[in-house]
Specification:
Layout (H helix, E strand, L loop, with lengths): L8 H7 L9 E3 L16 E12 L5 H22 L2 H6 L20 H8 L2 E4 L2 E4 L13 H9 L3 H7 L1 H21 L8 H13 L1 H5 L4 H21 L7 H16 L4 H18 L11 H20 L6 H16 L20 H6 L11 E2 L4 E6 L2 E6 L19 E5 L2 E5 L9 H7 L8 E3 L6 E2 L3 H7 L3 E3 L3 E9 L2 E8 L3 H4 L1 E10 L4 E10 L21 E8 L4 E5 L4 E5 L5 E8 L2 E2 L3 E7 L7 E11 L5 E10 L18
Helix pairs in contact: 4-6, 5-8, 6-7, 8-10, 8-11, 10-11, 11-12, 11-13, 12-14, 13-14
Length: 652
Amino acid sequence: MQETSRPFAEPLEEARADSGRPQASGMAHMTEVEIDPPHPGSPVVEAQSSPTYYSMPPGNRVVDLVGASLVRMRDEALARTYATWAYGLTLRGPMPDHMMLYPRDLRPGLADKAEALFQGRWSLPGGQVKTDGGSPFAVTPPTDGWAEELHGFSWLRHFTAAGGDAARTYAQTLVAGWMTQQSAHWDRIAWAPHVIGRRLTSWVANGALIIDGSDLIYRSTLLRNMARQARHLARTAALAPAGEKRLTAALGLTFSGLCLSEGEKRLEKGLRLVCRELDRQVLADGGHVSRNPAAILSIMLDLISLRDAMAARRMEIPKPIRDAVDRMMPMLRFFRHGDGRLALFNGANEGLDGAIDAVLAYDDTRGKPFGFAPHSGYQRMAAGHARLIADTGPPPPGRYSHDAHAGCLSFEISSGKSRLIVNCGTTRVLGPDWEAASRATAAHSTLVLADTSSARILRGSFTRALLGARTMEGPTRVESRRHENDSGIWLEASHNGYEKRFGLVHRRRLFFSAAGDELRGEDLLVANEPRKAFPWQRRYWYKPPEDPAFAVRFHLHPDAKLSLSQEGLSALVRLPNGEGWQLHARIEGVEAPLTIEESVYLGGGDTTRRTEQIVIASKVFRGDAKVNWAWKRVSGAPVKREAPELPELPDL
């Protein structure tokens, strides 16, 4: 298991100088909060009577490492071949004489981002670089991720948004500089299949920016270079890393065949690859196999652009593309909070400004999102104007898990357009340390046992070099059961992520009232006899600690203002929309003290915001533990607080 005690301790020290920690003012009075079961005679509106089970086979380190080693040797041999002069000769062929159309780039561009790039401040996923007037392609990239974003040219859309001759001239200068550099030497990252796919997609989508007003020599060089890239991509797209990257490569090949003259064969091959990958990656409920909500948004942005471009050329759109769009559209609504942004699970951030609206503008049905996603492993509760989204699934398969988080049974809740409880999110701009910390269980609103993550993410230099930062171990069995009646929605879920090391199973039970003004919860740690271990297994030599400590964490959105009562037994959170939400907790029949700790919010993607979290801490006693807690929406001035009555949650 990966140790996660205070995962943001070091990153927070760096950010401490930026802003002072907001202090929680004490409050002498709070309103009463109760956890009362709904009336047992309430008629059932909808019920999922039988539990849903998710089972993930454990990763096999030896098999995975052997396979990754073979792939690495293949890629190294191919890289040496691609860098030769002889291979370059094979990329020659007919030169397209024009672009047949410029597909619409649905990713919103920002003029202020263009200004920052023009000033030499290249803040891209993976790091930040100042060029001091030089070319960004001449600097040493801080990370491979930053280099991929740079060579992918997705940032061209910001210059398109800025408009004007200066933006066009600067963008064309950057494109010409890239072509000059790449003609001198072959770059492994720049010529990776998914990077070529993103670059070709960006170049055709911003074709008016990088072609219009240019001279004949530059235009001919550009079209010849694009055809050269497309020929190489046609040979290598199927070799791209599994998941979204492979789909990006296939889409880039398709766009090149669709938009460049003499590209009919590439279009046909690209469409075959796109359809094959959609069948592999898009689940029956519309989720992505990586369980990352942001992957759904990114793929949808490209698919809708491709669909429109094919319609503009009066081409038939393949059924797998139509079906994928139809399945993913409601799933995008599923992950949308009241503020119109994405929930923060498994590597997702809130999403680009305006990107979700750009996709949903193409939704003809505009129906309400469904309540649970059985294939993706998520639950959604909507009542009144409040929304709750919970992660009730295991980590994705290893090769799709490079962005997966150890956040099983975590949840987020928003009321109206204000977020209340969140996960920390993720960021690639601030480097690998921040990214690793954001993936830990402690960065999620759930129970954390012994400062340990419920899933282990590879960190060793050798294994990570071969397999990447994938999830290797985690919950292998996740169960969930949902029941709805006139009183509200019940959800019961459990995972065995702590079973191997501690012999404990985490069980979480939630009740969300029909009015959306009350959330009652119960977190339990239940002893479960661990499976027999053998001497060659690490857990055979590991003795689990007796009565380990645990903490139930509620990370708050930075716009929420937190106040703790004088005795520390209740908390009040004020939201920007004027609502107040009150929290009480009880451990084994006794009111539990609440503590406030620092946290950080990374949902913006390229920004870091300081925030706070409420922590309920205790220890396991004789093999089990139970915490009851309740959030209740209150209005007006607080009234005198009485001792809360927290009855047991009934069985479903």
